[in-house]
Amino acid sequence: MHGWEAGQELIVIDTGDGILLKPKKRFPETKLQNVAECLKYQGTPKSLSEMEDALRQGVAEQWRGCS
Fold first, then answer.
1. Arithmetic mean of pLDDT, 52-58
2. How far apart are CA 35 and CA 37, in angstroms?
3. Helix, strand or coil for residue 62?
4. For residues 48 and 45, what is the distance between their CA atoms, to the nearest angstrom?
5. What is the CA radius of gyration of the chain?
6. Which distant-in-sequence residues (6+ apart) come within 8 Å of 4 by Cβ?
């Protein structure tokens, strides 16, 4: 009646008077290249040393004041 196939994932919503079942929409198929393109860094490239220094600083800030 609803066109649901075996294995169709559903979203269950409590309406207060009952439940509403909605088919979960699938993500469109993507390729790694499509995803990686949106992650491009726009700034000046950093050296490995600069990245390691930033990581050290971040860890130090996270742990500062912890006993």
1. 94
2. 5
3. helix
4. 10
5. 23
6. 10, 23
Structure tokens at 37: 């393109």
DSSP label of 18:
S
Q: Place 67 in a pLDDT band, splitting at 50, 70 and 90.
A: low
- pTM strictly above 0.70: no
Q: Which residues pair with 21 in a beta bridge?
A: 12
Tokens for 36, please give them.
């990686």
Distance of alpha carbon 19 from alpha carbon 10, whole angstroms: 12
Q: What does the block give as tokens for 44?
A: 């000046």
Question: Is 24 in contact with 10 (CB distance < 8 Å)?
Answer: yes
Structural tokens at position 5: 């196939």
